[in-house]
Specification:
By secondary structure, the protein is an alpha/beta fold. It is 37% helix and 13% strand. The strands form four sheets. An eight-stranded parallel beta sheet has the order 5-4-3-2-1-13-12-7. A three-stranded mixed beta sheet has the order 6-8-9, covered by helices on one side. The structure holds 6-O-phosphono-beta-D-galactopyranose. It comes from Kribbibacterium absianum.
Amino acid sequence: MFHTNLAPFPEGFLWGASTSAYQVEGAWDQDGKAPSVQDLHEPRGQADFKVASDHYHHVEEDVELMARMGLKAYRFSVAWARVMPDPFGDPNPAGLAFYDRLVNALIAHGIEPIVTMYHFDLPLSLHEAGGWANRRTTDAFERYARVLFEHFGDRVKMWLTINEQNVMINHPNAMNPGRTPSQRELYQQCHHMFVASAKATLLLHQLWPDAKIGPAPNITAIYPETCDPADAIAADDWESIRCWLYLDVACYGRYNPLVWRYLEERGCTPEMEPGDAELLAAAKPDFLGVNYYATATVKAPKNDGHDRAPRNGDQQVMIGEEGVYRAGTNPHLTQTPYGWIVDPVGLRTTLRRIASRYAMPILITENGLGTHDEVAADGGVHDQYRIDYLQMHFEQAQLALSDGVDLIGFCPWSFMDLVSTHNGYAKRYGFVYVDRDECDLRSLERIPKDSFHWYREVIETNGASL
Ligand code: BGP
């Protein structure tokens, strides 16, 4: 659809940026923090999460930079194991104190804190007790939620429960170190995450009726590879299993009927406790966080033992499922050097589909370009490629607004360079360069990239400079 007049970005639009605790903080075992599943990763020749970007020791300086860039919002996650080293015990005062410093500095600069409660870093002790397959993890999450809401609820008014629950279920290896759960177990884990998220949602609404909370799945539009109706069914299946299941439970409080049948056929329906259905139905989010990087393309399965066709890849690389769909290719789209599809129009499509299905406010909680950056001879980082990438995605966000999508903010990934989930420090996303490489911590100096200055102007003009 063409628009004769583009809708302007609304007043109060949350121009933000995102990070997550384990990828940026470092101080992995300091001041009482217990290990999380992420601390088990010790990749050879690649950055681990022990020091990361050392945000823990640079927090005030980093917030100063956010203020210089003019950020209206900063999305970060709390490390569950920093606040609750014993998930069933008392909170760690030093852990709370670190986030107090961060939250207070943000507020002093007029930056809205948006807090993800759990971003891939399950406390190791919970993992060792069965992780999300163990129902007690939902009790631990509720306890943790109460600590966070009681402590920060006077200042933090926007919360995200779980980052990319759908990625954790569809790409489970990174979150389940040392083992590969069965599909049945994965959907039990998934159900427990739904329960945990619902409990947190109800609790926040009870304690702080003025605060807002939502999930943060990775949602992306899907294309059938051709107009063959069989490809369209495969695309529908993929979208229901990977995307709608998660938003249907959050928004409608019930499982998607197609996915429920798919689980029944495979003997994978989760065990529910009495009261779960009512709990899911009662917990209503206030907005939807959406991580968007790349669209996917699928085609009909052949059911010949090769539909899965596993490719080496990470959370954005499409893998098929036997008898359900196969990965397809899309000749209209390019890829990043790391093989991630670049599809700005796909962002508009994704937002439109979510809006027309759920009619809820949407916050883009992640989107960005991960690639190699270098400090030039003049001392700057000239990341025009990142500016181009973000410019295209912001333009499509504005088109989505013009289409009628209630888009409340855009938080690119990431505010500063941080450790990539799969590619260490070689793959950078930040507006701010951090002087370290894979294994050499160097100075850890912060250097604003060209994209930093470009984004400052976008924010200052509320998008008019695009
Ligand atoms: C999302 C995660 C982020 C971040 C991002 C980039 O799936 O929520 O934590 O890692 O992807 O991915 P990567 O670091 O693998 O490049």
